[in-house]
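ARCHIVE CARD
SHELF: 3
SLOT: left
DATA:
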Amino acid sequence: MSAALVRHPAVAGRFYPRDPSDLRGEVDTYLSQSPKQKAIRALGCIAPHAGYMYSGHVAGAVFARIDIPELCLVLCPNHTGMGRPLAIMSEGAWETPLAEVSIEEKFAAALKKHCSLLSEDSLAHRSEHAVEVELPFLQERQPKLKIVPIALGTSQFEPLAQLGNAIAEAVTEHKEPVLIVASSDMNHYESDAVTRVKDHKAIEPILALDARGLYDTVMNEQISMCGFGPAVAMLTAAKKLGATSAELVKYATSGDVSGDRDMVVGYAGVIVPAPR
């Protein structure tokens, strides 16, 4: 594989440990903090992407509950502003301190076939952390992991819904299970009290699998949920794939760790089970 096709870590040593054994130990600690339950098959999930010190326990609670399939579609917001509005990487690999994770080229091609809005664009992913921080959790739970990463820089509902419908079509064609991971933190940089109120207003339509309701709530209530776009696309796809419920696995704010309640970020861990 050519070096040009490997996406190297952008936030190792900052958001999570750079040393492989330290990273594995930290991830395993977060995965083991939740009560032991049988892992379930899920269509999708929402997991936070802050530094592990703050949100790792919420991400761990999500991924510990899911039977992680070999293919994960990881949707994230575009925090950097670089690249195209709907940016996919369709070939190569992502390097983490644990190992390289290959991109599933056939599934990526199917997504592009069903959604003409997707652009091949590695620039949007180069410095973006929100896919990267999910990968060690997924790697620890699934040694044969392959991914397709998409960064979303649009705040318009229609392209997000169009992507969600395309994802459902590609997942249906794929035959094997696919987990749709929406990488998102919740409300940013308001007080703990305000953030909890705002976040639970957003969580309500998420649990109702109401993609449009989530979008409207985020816009109307001025909720600074960075990954509402990935969540809208995931919910749209999951509903089309037959989802009937969603579960809030864990909720927290950065104030729970830092003790600073004046300015926090919220973290919600949500699972959308596959239909039985």
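SLOT: right
DATA:
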Amino acid sequence: MSAIANDYIEDMKQNKLRVALYQQDIVWEDPQANFDKVEKAFSMLSQPVDILVVPETFSTGFGDHMARQAEKPCGATFGFAHAMAQKHNALFVGSWTVCQPEGVYNRMHLVRPDGSFEYYDKGHTFRMSSEASQVLRGQRRVTVEWRGWRIRPAVCYDLRFPLWLRNSADWDYDLLMVCANWPGSRHHAWTTLLKARAIENLSYAVGCNRTGCDSTGIEYAGCSAIVDFKGLPMCQIEPRDAANDTSERVIVAELDAEKLDTFREHWPFNLDFDIQ
């Protein structure tokens, strides 16, 4: 089959899209240990999937050394992401810090099996941590197409800003994809905002948060979920019990384009969106 034909098939919209997310207990500042964990977790999948999702800064953790941990573009973490995308014939989605001439970005990568990729630089760096002083804010919203689905990437704190993630009346995106390191002390906000963004944008939403405890003592409840366009969880992980369970696991859901399109046709709330 020609390369042109392959490209055409890749661009055709699949009615069903299978998404797997890994709620990971990140090993602090140890990329290889995290690569091993991610590879092992996704190797347990019993069926093929179209997208693999890991948390924000999945290879190192989120903390005070983000600038020091930053890699050159297409460095070791990108190489791992590409290998995973190839192995599973899926889009690999996750964030890590990248060093550019003007500074460091918390960059969410969406890596295809052929090594091509799109990226989104976190638009809202977290001012209540050292991230805001180490990491530059991204200036552009991004829509990525994969197997005919339109995806809007977002990173953690971005979830609090509805105008930044607002869909258009003509449907910029079908799937909101959020990678996060969202602390357990605010897990109710995380789960509520994820559902709210899905409801108001008539979009599926995937929220992949980390779990466990980092080296600074911050605990993460996880609460990762895949939510439909009504704000109803298709699958979700309950808050972890810090004493007994890290809730480190993979969940999978199948998104249905026909159901999304039908709902949008019957409930055209987009026609009354406020003008930005």
